[in-house]
Each structure stands twice: as structure tokens, then as C-alpha cells.
């Protein structure tokens, strides 16, 4: 159960997620209406996990499917299943590139390692432990990953607050009704704001990286508990 909670969280929480969240808050600095108000991924992806757990987890698990494409292939045929694999594979490739890119940029800043070198090393390490340990290695490295992320973020807070590049947290924003880092949503931006939330919530469901965890759970009940 504990490992399940960690691996479900790791469905979305990784290097790209952490770096992207920091970037979204920082956008408030240039007066574009960024800030914490525009950090939509944590709330949106959490809701996507809850909805997927309520609607899809139990029937997918009880049907004994191996991938998220299986029910479509069963209903629409083998060729349609093969076609539907293409966007799923592209999504996973781009997501993996984002993760490796965030790791490369982090290492290049912290230890001065060339970004392309850190990306290649990281990719080789990931491939090695997956080839050797299979899905179990992915699950247990999820646990290690989240513990390291939590420890790293807590450790970084005092250094970040004292760094000269960090401004005053209580400085007024471009909109005088809010604090700078909190951000705000302008009237003309509400359409984009709502559309982005819908995209994250419903677009966060059809990912094989999520369904591999659904279908690997011992029972549908265990998976649902881990999500909630």
C-alpha cells in the first residue's frame, strides 16, 4: 500500500513537474499574471487521478487488460489499436524528453556538467535499471525519487530565500489586489485558465504511465486507496 501511494504520486511528480512549477510561479515577475495562481498542474493532475480512479480503475483492472489501448483494440479491432498506439508512444517520448531535460538543466546549474552529458548519463542509468529489474525497479525507484525530491526541496528553501536573485515575497504584484508571488488571473485570461485546467484534468487520464500502475495493483481497491 505504501509503495502504491509513492508510485501513484510519481505518475506526475518528477523533475519536469518540479521545474515547471517553479517556472510558472516565476512568470509573475514580468507582470504576465503568472505566480501561484497559474500553477495548475498540482490541482489538475490530482483531480485527474481521482476521476480515473472512480471511473476507469476498477473495470480496467477486473478486465485483465495489459495496456490502456486494450479495450479500444477489443472493441475496434487490431488495426485501430495499432493506430492508437502512435499518439500514446509520442506522448511518452516527449514526456521522457522533458524529464531528462529538466535533470540535465539541474545538474548543469548545480555541478557545472554539460547538459547533453547529464541527459545521456541519466538515460543510460534509467534504461539499465529497467532492463535489469523490470516494472518492480520502476516502482521502487519512484519511492527513492520522491524521498530525494522532498529532502532536496526542504534543504533548498533557506538557500533560495537568502539568494540575491530571489525578490521580496511580499512585494506588490502588477495587480495591486494580490501579493506578487501569488499572481492573479486577468479577466481576459479566464478562458485560457479554465481551458488549461480541463486539458490537465482530462488529458491526464489517457497515459500508459498511469495505467501501468493501475493494472499492476494487487486489487482495484488497493489502487483506489492509493489514489485517494
UniProtKB/TrEMBL annotation:
The chain crosses the membrane at residues 37-57, 78-103, 115-136, 143-161, 190-210. InterPro entries: Choline_transporter, Na/Glc_symporter_sf, Na/solute_symporter. GO terms for molecular function: choline:sodium symporter activity. One of its GO terms (biological process) is acetylcholine biosynthetic process. Keywords: Glycoprotein, Ion transport, Membrane, Neurotransmitter biosynthesis, Sodium, Sodium transport, Symport, Transmembrane, Transmembrane helix, Transport. It is found in: Membrane. It is a multi-pass membrane protein. The keyword Transmembrane applies. GO terms for cellular component: plasma membrane. Belongs to the sodium:solute symporter (SSF) (TC 2.A.21) family. This is SLC5A7. It comes from Bugula neritina. The lineage of its organism: Eukaryota, Metazoa, Spiralia, Lophotrochozoa, Bryozoa.
Amino acid at each position: 500500500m505504501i509503495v502504491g501511494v509513492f508510485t501513484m504520486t510519481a505518475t506526475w511528480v518528477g523533475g519536469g513537474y518540479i521545474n515547471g512549477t517553479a517556472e510558472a510561479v516565476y512568470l509573475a515577475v514580468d507582470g504576465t499574471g503568472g505566480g501561484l495562481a497559474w500553477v495548475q498542474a498540482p490541482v489538475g493532475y490530482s483531480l485527474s487521478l481521482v476521476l480515473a480512479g472512480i471511473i476507469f480503475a476498477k473495470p480496467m483492472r477486473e478486465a485483465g487488460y495489459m495496456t490502456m489501448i486494450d479495450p479500444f483494440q477489443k472493441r475496434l479491432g487490431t488495426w485501430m489499436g495499432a493506430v492508437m498506439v502512435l499518439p500514446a508512444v509520442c506522448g511518452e517520448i516527449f514526456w521522457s524528453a522533458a524529464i531528462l531535460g529538466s535533470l540535465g538543466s539541474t545538474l548543469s546549474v548545480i555541478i557545472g556538467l554539460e547538459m547533453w552529458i547529464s541527459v545521456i548519463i541519466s538515460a543510460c542509468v534509467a534504461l539499465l535499471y529497467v532492463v535489469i529489474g523490470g516494472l518492480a525497479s520502476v516502482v521502487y525507484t519512484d519511492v527513492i525519487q520522491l524521498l530525494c525530491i522532498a529532502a532536496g526541496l526542504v534543504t533548498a528553501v533557506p538557500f533560495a530565500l537568502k539568494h540575491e536573485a530571489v525578490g521580496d515575497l511580499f512585494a506588490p504584484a502588477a495587480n495591486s489586489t494580490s501579493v506578487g508571488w501569488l499572481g492573479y488571473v486577468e479577466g481576459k485570461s479566464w478562458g485560457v485558465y479554465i481551458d488549461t485546467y480541463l486539458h490537465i484534468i482530462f488529458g491526464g487520464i489517457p497515459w500508459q504511465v498511469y495505467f501501468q500502475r493501475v493494472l499492476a495493483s494487487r486489487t482495484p481497491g488497493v489502487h483506489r486507496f492509493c489514489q485517494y
